[in-house]
TrEMBL record:
GO molecular function: acyltransferase activity
Keywords of the record: Acyltransferase, Transferase
Pfam families: FlK
Residues of the active site: T34, E42, H68
Methyltransferase among keywords: no
Protein name from the UniProt record: Dihydrolipoamide acyltransferase
Domain Fluoroacetyl-CoA-specific thioesterase-like positions: 15-116
Length: 124
C-alpha cells in the first residue's frame, strides 16, 4: 500500500438546499448544515486515500472531532482539504479544513481504519 503521511486532496462543492440544516433536521435555517459539512469532510478524506488503497480494501470512519465556525447560505462555494497526517498500521489520521471565499468555516481531526469489506460486513 502506498499510503504515506502528507497525502493531500482538495475538493469543492456548492451548497444546495439538500445541504441545509432544515433539510438535515439539524436546525431550522437554510444554511450549510454541520452534518453536511462533516459528510463532505469524510468524503474528502476518503478521496485523499482512495487512489492509494490496495485492491479489495476499503476504509471506515470511526471518529471525527469537528468545529463548524461559520454559516454559509445556499449557493456558496465551499472548499475542503484533507491531509493524511499519520499512518499507524491500519489506522489513518487526518487533519481537515473547510473554507469559503472569505476563509475557514470549519476544521476537523478524523480517524479512519483500513478494512476488508467482506470480513467487515460478515460481522454485522
Amino acid at each position: 500500500m502506498a499510503l504515506a503521511e502528507g497525502l493531500t486532496v482538495t475538493q469543492t462543492m456548492t451548497v444546495t438546499k439538500l445541504d441545509t440544516a432544515i433539510h438535515h433536521g439539524s436546525g431550522k435555517l437554510e444554511v450549510f448544515a454541520t452534518p453536511a459539512m462533516v459528510a463532505f469532510m469524510e468524503n474528502t478524506a476518503l478521496a485523499c486515500i482512495a487512489p492509494e488503497m490496495e485492491k479489495g480494501t476499503d476504509s471506515v470512519g470511526i471518529q471525527i472531532d469537528t468545529k463548524h465556525s461559520k454559516a454559509n447560505k445556499v449557493g456558496t462555494l465551499v472548499t475542503c482539504t484533507a491531509k493524511l497526517v499519520k499512518v499507524d498500521g491500519k489506522k489513518l489520521s487526518f487533519e481537515i479544513e473547510a473554507s469559503d471565499e472569505d476563509g475557514k468555516i470549519g476544521s476537523a481531526f478524523h480517524l479512519r481504519y483500513i478494512i476488508d469489506p467482506v470480513k467487515f460486513m460478515s460481522r454485522l
